[in-house]
Amino acid sequence: MSPIGQNGVVAREVPDLQRLPRPLYGRVESLPNRALTFVHSHPWVQLSYAIAGVLEVHTASMRFLAPPQRAVWVPAGVEHRVFSSPRTEMRSLYIECQSVPWGPEDCRVLAVSPLLRELIDGFSALPVEYDEAGAAGRLTAVLLDQLQAAAQLELSLPLPRDVRLQAICNGLSVEEDRHLGLADWGARLGVSERTLSRLFLHDTGLSFRAWRQRQRLLDALAPLERGERVTDVALACGYDSLSAFIAAFRQQFGATPGEFFRARR
What we know:
Layout: E1 2-4, E2 9-11, E3 24-31, E4 35-36, E5 45-52, E6 55-58, E7 62-66, E8 70-74, E9 81-84, E10 88-95, E11 108-111, H1 114-124, H2 135-148, E12 152-153, E13 156-158, H3 163-171, H4 182-189, H5 193-204, H6 208-225, H7 230-236, H8 242-253, H9 257-264
Parallel strand pairs: 2-4
Antiparallel strand pairs: 1-2, 3-10, 4-9, 5-8, 5-10, 6-7, 6-9, 7-13, 8-11, 11-12
Helix pairs in contact: 1-2
């Protein structure tokens, strides 16, 4: 891996595989720094999962986040890039398409049950060319059965196509612009607030306010997973009070930040 820029981000290499040695191939990585891959695709399905840290998978139209006990399903042929927070312990599964004929055709975030977690951990310890006819093959079959049963979760954010909306969405990640409303952005871009509001709903299916709130909450997952104080995270994400942040977090994820990460551990 090689450094990118001066912020500690490193490039993570994608394995150069012409074919998978077995229908299910596993990759284990420890990533001490924030890491990313460049845009790429695979002729097989990829499941990105981290037992520690937070993963992000970006496609042309969506951003998917997976804290621990979550995984991102990436179908074959879908161009994507993967980001990881510092100190991520990552498990990647590459799966031949014929082994998962039931597989969804779009990216999604899946819940990783305790059983599925242990199956992935056990599979990661197997040799690359495991015995398909023996116990390893049976473990693989159970793993795929559990993967098929995994629940889909709403941990994604639609990305706009309009370049003006892209400028707004990028600006919302900048601290000094985080509190700007749609009228402020309209004045900056020379577009009416009403036009921007209509474009947001058309491009993302969400209002500007709903999109911004979901972005803030998704951005909070990585620092919360690292154990940062909830109050500090709330303020950094643009919330004026801890109570407002906790209420929004509970509404989005069905639990307070403490409950959410305590349950996952």
